[in-house]
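Here is the promised in-class demo. Please do not try to memorize the tokens; focus on the logic of going from shape to residues.
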């Protein structure tokens, strides 16, 4: 709406000067990087972010951890919440509801893996009751 009210300047007119201005500085022409930095929404750096996104992280694992952190894995518990007509039983043990916390923290095999990992790291051998305990 605003652009339509401005008369288009002529390149041939020597009094017209063109530049692209962002909060960083002025550019002689359009600058995508600086424009993107101005336009994209920014939020504060979350305290969990360095735990998932670090220099030597395997991208696939970092992405899965990030998805799991926001509880966006397609577990049966979530699929049911979307209206799918399926059972909520865990596909591995059929004894509990299949949720992120069950699959990754409380399932028997997961717990045994966590015990090995914690032992290897020299940390006290305990189980994670909830996802927040793992992240902390
Ligand atoms: Zn299970």
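The designed amino acids, position by position:
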């Amino acid at each position: 709406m605003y652009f339509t009210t401005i008369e288009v300047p002529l390149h041939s007119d020597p009094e017209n000067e063109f530049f692209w201005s962002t909060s960083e500085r002025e550019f002689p022409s359009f600058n995508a990087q600086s424009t993107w930095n101005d336009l994209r929404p920014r939020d504060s750096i979350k305290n969990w972010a360095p735990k998932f996104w670090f220099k030597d992280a395997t991208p696939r694992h970092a992405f899965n951890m990030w998805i799991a952190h926001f509880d966006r894995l397609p577990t049966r518990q979530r699929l049911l919440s979307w209206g799918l007509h399926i059972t909520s039983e865990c596909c591995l043990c059929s004894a509990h509801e299949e949720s992120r916390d069950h699959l990754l923290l409380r399932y028997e095999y997961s717990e045994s893996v966590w015990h090995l990992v914690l032992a290897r790291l020299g940390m006290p051998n305990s189980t994670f009751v909830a996802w927040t305990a793992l992240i902390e």
